[in-house]
Amino acid sequence: MSLRVGIPVVVALTAGPCVSGGVDLGGVTVSLEAYHGPASVTAEIEAPFRLRLAVHPAEEKGALAIRVALPKTGPRAWPAEDVEVRDSRGEAMMVRRAGIEWSTLVIPVPATAAAYVVQAVGPAPKRAPGPPDSARVIMDDATGLRLGIARWYDGRKAALSIRFDDSHPTHLTAAAPILREYGFRGTFMVNPGAAEPGSRRRSNFAERASEWAALAQQGDHELANHTAHHRGAKGDEEMEAEIGDAARAIWAMTPGKSKLMALNLGGGTFWETTRTLRYYLDKYHQFDASGNSTGMDDSYGDRVGNFRRMLEQHVERGLWLRVHYHYIGEGLSSSEANFRAALDVAKAHRSALWVAGMADIHKYQTGRDSARLTLLGSSATRLEFRIAPQTDHELYDHPLTLEMTRAGALDATRVAVKDAGGQAVPVRAGDGAGDAVLRFDVAPRESAYSIEIKP
Ligand SMILES: [Zn+2]
After folding, report:
1. Strand order in the sheet with 64-69
2. pLDDT value at position 24?
3. Total tally of structural domains belonging to the chain
């Protein structure tokens, strides 16, 4: 199928809505960016996650830019992190994207008749779903035990991450200490690059570098990558430096810790690169945490009420709620009173909620979703099993929680869990509805364990 898009000729050969001169292509929309001249672009889906574009300049002499918006959710969603664009000679093209909108590509092209390919590349297994939920449950008749990997750490029903952007001084003076009062872990997205000559932007981070280092050392909060300077990048080299320099600065403050961290490219920034985002994520052990977060600035209105509603929905559905703040204090993005009021809501849901850093939650989720539980053997009083996560345990180092239940009573003092080396693993009683629940944590690496039930 082939589609002619643009002005004056728009021929839609598939069903689907036209969006501002663009045409629907399996959820993809293609158009010429801010253009009202004679040139046009045609688009065709050649294979899954492979789109062919052809430019027809007609009388046009000036430069053009093709805008491609990929579907972000649902069954037709593209893996935007893996997408690149190549010309007809196979050369990677420079593509511009907004920091928090990686699925929308703007591709500058000359006004010449030429073809381009937009495609997802890289190892497909990375994009494949892990084993199904049923692979993480053992139902054993001999012991009567049901053993499973908890959806979230410690068997909590939902996860909450609280993010702070732009290394603002009020993060050190207000956000971090107030979170500490509540026992909550925050995720601080910092811009650790030094002030640049000619830039009007002060480096809030450099002015308080020793305080940030102290916060990192204390370890009860998490630092994350908001890029070195919060200004985007023109070209591969700059993008490499903006992500790489910030990652290295954070690693230097957290020696010996997992190098995995959240990356947020920043609102209002534009990034030009020939490479996939995956290239940068993999090279610097980052995961993309740019989008899918709720802003908590007071200017959005009724933040506390909205937060309460969202939190209740996420607890009900067992999901990860991500919220983010900018500056905390009177006359700033969020007043201290509103900040505290939201934390009070989270505190009221504490037993159902895992409040954690974004990297912790990502590690748990990825490790769990990749893992299988296998029954190795069982008798009336003993069960042996293996857990096998597929993640790199040096990066994905957050423990996984296993839960066991059995019809009727299950007394923690009568259950002994041992690792493969015979070391006892502490077991704790949980508050399951109805049947008793026992929980224990294991390292996120392939290993065997035994469970003994004393009569
Ligand atoms: Zn920002």
Report:
1. 23-25, 28-32, 64-69, 101-109, 95-98, 270-273, 233-234
2. 62
3. 3
